[in-house]
């Protein structure tokens, strides 16, 4: 069974949807790390705060649902992405290196680092496997069949 029930007409359509997803995630990181100065000040002690974690997990879950209509998959993937980020912070915290790193970084740096972490996990176009790899399905412009990939808007049989 496929992850998503949404079918695209071409790669371009899918890339627009994906870029929009990335833009929303980046804006959400800005909102909870740069704009929320109280939460940012807490990050020096705890890495990701509970408020940031639940806020971001909800956003990612909602956005993944919008591009798949698959509730179970969206819930699992958003949980795993955020869980991975918590682990990333915990590695530094447990080794007493986080405070040092936190003091070297600007909030903008943390946003960029976390955005690239999330984008790398989802799909950065540079490696496989990745989480969004099997999400887009396409409709062949010739035979209307739904397939995993198109070549010049057509399936491999047309
Ligand atoms: Zn075809």
Q: What number of domains? A: 1
The dominant shape is elongated
- Summarize model confidence as the mean pLDDT: 96
Q: Indicate the low-confidence ranges by residue numbers.
A: none
Strand-helix topology:
Layout: E1 7-8, H1 11-35, H2 37-46, H3 50-66, H4 71-94, H5 98-104, H6 107-122, E2 137-139, E3 146-147
Parallel strand pairs: 1-2
Antiparallel strand pairs: 2-3
Helix pairs in contact: 1-3, 1-6, 3-4
Task: Give a nutshell description of this structure.
The protein is mainly α. The protein has helices spanning 11-35, 37-46, 50-66, 71-94, 98-104, 107-122, and strands spanning 7-8, 137-139, 146-147.
Protein architecture, described:
By secondary structure, this protein is mainly α. The chain has one domain (10-129). The chain has helices spanning 11-35, 37-46, 50-66, 71-94, 98-104, 107-122; strands at residues 7-8, 137-139, 146-147. α1 packs antiparallel against α3 (50-66) and α3 runs antiparallel to α4. It is elongated and about 60 Å long. The mean pLDDT is 96. Residues 140, 142-143, 145, 154-155, 157-158 line the site of zinc ion.
Please tag this protein with its features.
elongated, 6 helices, 63% helix, 3 strands, three-stranded mixed beta sheet, 158 residues, mainly alpha
